[in-house]
Amino acid sequence: MKDNIILIGLSTSGKTTIGKEVSRILEKTFIDCDSLIQEKQGKTINEIFEVYGEKYFRELEKELVNNLMGIENAIISTGGGLPIYNNNLDKLKHIGLVIFLDAPLNEIIERSIKVKDRPLLTGNIEKTISKLYNERINIYRKAHYILNTENLSVDQCANNIISVLK
Predict the structure, then answer these.
(1) Does domain 4-165 have CATH number 2.40.128.110?
(2) What is the three-class DSSP state of 63?
(3) pLDDT digits over 9-60, tens only?
């Protein structure tokens, strides 16, 4: 297995924030999959969904995962749905150590209410998040490691991830 760490979990579970901290401590490159897609497309995730639809976006994610196959020494933050589609989770497991950030549902809901740039977080946020969680949890749990982030600070999460590597 390569020396990459890949963080998966629901939107707003802390993948980017915790990933940046782990990359800082370990002096590894930080890669945010959603940001890479936005840069390449010149559009926000919301705009991609609006203009081209979710299926197109999932194809962009698939292409990105394939392009990550040769990457080394990186911390990778995925979009919430990336591991769910196109057999991406199995591919991610070949890229590095996959860690599921299992944040409590009530925290995810609370954070998601404040977010405006996630296309799947619309309507009744509590209902939407609960539905996504139930649809995705069994795939997320196939990660190499599950980190329950409840009552943990960003620093504590980062240190737990680093201790898994030892």
Answers:
(1) no
(2) helix
(3) 998 889 999 999 999 999 999 999 999 999 999 999 889 988 999 999 999 9
Binding residues for substrate: 34, 58, 80, 136
Name the residue with tokens 């990459």: 4
The residue among 9, 4, 1 whose CA lies nearest residue 149 is 9
Annotated binding site: which residue ranges? 12-17, 34, 58, 80, 118, 136
Q: How far apart are CA 146 and CA 140, in angstroms?
A: 8
**Amino acid at the residue 34:** D
Query: For 139-162, what is each residue's pLDDT tens digit?
Result: 999 999 999 999 999 999 999 999
Strand order in the sheet with 29-32: 29-32, 74-77, 4-8, 96-102, 145-148
Residues in binding site for ATP: 12-17, 118
